[in-house]
User: Which sequence fits this backbone?
């Protein structure tokens, strides 16, 4: 879990206080929230009228098992989520699927989740470039605060596995018509620096090291 900045501690919505929401690296015990996460992402896309890459239950569950996801909980209630993935032989990393449940919006929660996924990506793959494809103004602002810069799609990974993830988006025809040069989303890229906006507990770092050691 992470530290909460003083200005964020003042946020209250109804009977929910920001300090009562825990943001943490997800583990296998959180798989029970996957269907709720997928439903929340789907409903948010409908409300915004924008596209989103569709993910399966098993895909998100695997991210939790591999310590590649961040979840926010208010007690036992789902509040928010995001995950990370590597591309191009770990030369690139994406932080994706950022979602906050409507009940918990307005509490600076998206920023806390974004900070945690960004830190997780930087710790696990410190030399990788981190990129984002988004059509959301709030995410663009958070990316900019972390040091991301707008770039052309040519500056992003050429890993076909990543681009296949766009096939489930309602706007994929735009991507196809432009020869994958641009789409509704804006491409943003972060080149590595030493700035880490959130802390990850040592026990989580140890779990990550154990997971990675089994893959080598």
Assistant:
């Amino acid at each position: 879990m992470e530290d909460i900045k003083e200005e964020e501690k003042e946020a209250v919505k109804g009977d929910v206080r920001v300090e009562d929401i825990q943001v943490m690296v997800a583990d296998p015990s959180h798989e029970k929230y996957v269907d709720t996460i997928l439903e929340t992402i789907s409903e948010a896309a409908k409300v915004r009228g924008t596209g989103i890459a569709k993910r399966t239950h098993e895909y998100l569950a695997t991210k939790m098992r591999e310590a590649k996801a961040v979840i926010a909980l208010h007690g036992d209630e789902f509040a928010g989520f995001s995950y990370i993935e590597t591309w191009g032989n770990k030369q690139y990393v994406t932080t994706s699927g950022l979602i906050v449940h409507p009940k918990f919006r307005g509490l600076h929660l998206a920023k806390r989740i974004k900070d945690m996924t960004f830190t997780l990506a930087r710790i696990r793959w410190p030399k990788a470039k981190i990129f984002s494809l988004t059509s959301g103004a709030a995410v663009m602002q958070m990316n900019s605060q972390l040091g991301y810069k707008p770039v052309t799609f040519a500056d992003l990974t050429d890993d076909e596995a990543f681009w296949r993830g766009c096939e489930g988006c309602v706007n994929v025809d735009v991507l196809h018509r432009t020869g994958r040069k641009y789409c509704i989303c804006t491409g943003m890229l972060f080149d590595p620096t030493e700035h880490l906006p959130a802390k990850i507990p040592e026990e989580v770092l140890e779990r990550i090291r154990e997971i990675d050691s089994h893959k080598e």
Summary: The longest strand covers residues 77-87.
